[in-house]
């Protein structure tokens, strides 16, 4: 008997779990000439919203402040590689990056980062975090706008396109990727 497609709540739960357990995503920013740049970044997931940490005098922080349109990709690849391909899942997001300037939100980001990744608590990385205009560290909130969720646990090549609402906190639309792509051909 074929497995049924997951509900929106199940997709949300699976994405939230991926964003809380995977430590690194690839972030694409846009330079002043409209060309993309990709960077590997640590992420902290808070529901469907992602936070990324960088420093004031980096290429990516300059680009994020000049153009908030970003894309990121994060995936779970099992240690067994191809033999465990039924466990592979990934998320590709187009979103909006916002510099976080609220002290309470910055404190929350540091807390969830240390909660998700115990190694962060063993460093001084978050010991002296200040507001963006007072220090070198910067946090960006990335709210998803659209995305692609792939989950081979459902079935091989299961893919859905997603729209997000409420500041990236909810999934407002789920469409079968293959049906949409075939419809465009």
Automatic annotation (TrEMBL):
Keyword set includes Oxidoreductase: yes
Residue ranges annotated for the Pyridoxamine 5'-phosphate oxidase N-terminal domain, each copy included: 12-143
Record bears the keyword Oxidoreductase: yes
GO annotations of cellular component type: cytosol
Molecular function GO terms recorded: coenzyme F420 binding; oxidoreductase activity, acting on the CH-CH group of donors
Keywords annotated in UniProt: Oxidoreductase
A Pfam family per the record: PNPOx_N
SUPFAM superfamilies: FMN-binding split barrel (SSF50475)
InterPro entries given in the database record: F420H2_bilvrd_red/Heme_oxyg, Pyridox_Oxase_N, Split_barrel_FMN-bd
Entry protein name: Pyridoxamine 5'-phosphate oxidase
Organism name: Amycolatopsis thermoflava
Lineage, opening ranks: Bacteria, Bacillati, Actinomycetota, Actinomycetes, Pseudonocardiales
């Amino acid at each position: 008997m074929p497995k049924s497609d997951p509900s929106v709540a199940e997709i949300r739960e699976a994405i939230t779990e991926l964003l809380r357990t995977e430590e690194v995503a690839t972030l694409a920013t846009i330079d002043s000439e409209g060309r993309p740049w990709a960077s590997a970044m640590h992420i902290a997931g808070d529901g469907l919203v992602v936070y990324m940490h960088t420093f004031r005098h980096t290429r990516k922080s300059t680009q994020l402040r000049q153009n908030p349109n970003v894309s990121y990709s994060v995936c779970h690849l099992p240690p067994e590689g191809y033999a465990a391909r039924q466990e592979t899942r990934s998320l590709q997001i187009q979103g909006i990056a916002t510099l976080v300037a609220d002290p309470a939100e910055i404190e929350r980001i540091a807390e969830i980062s240390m909660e998700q990744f115990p190694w962060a608590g063993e460093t001084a990385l978050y010991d002296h975090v200040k507001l963006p205009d007072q220090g070198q560290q910067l946090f960006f909130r990335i709210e998803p706008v659209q995305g692609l969720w792939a989950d081979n646990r459902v079935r091989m090549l299961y893919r859905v396109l997603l729209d997000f609402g409420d500041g990236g906190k909810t999934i407002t639309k789920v469409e079968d990727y293959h049906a949409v792509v075939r419809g465009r051909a």
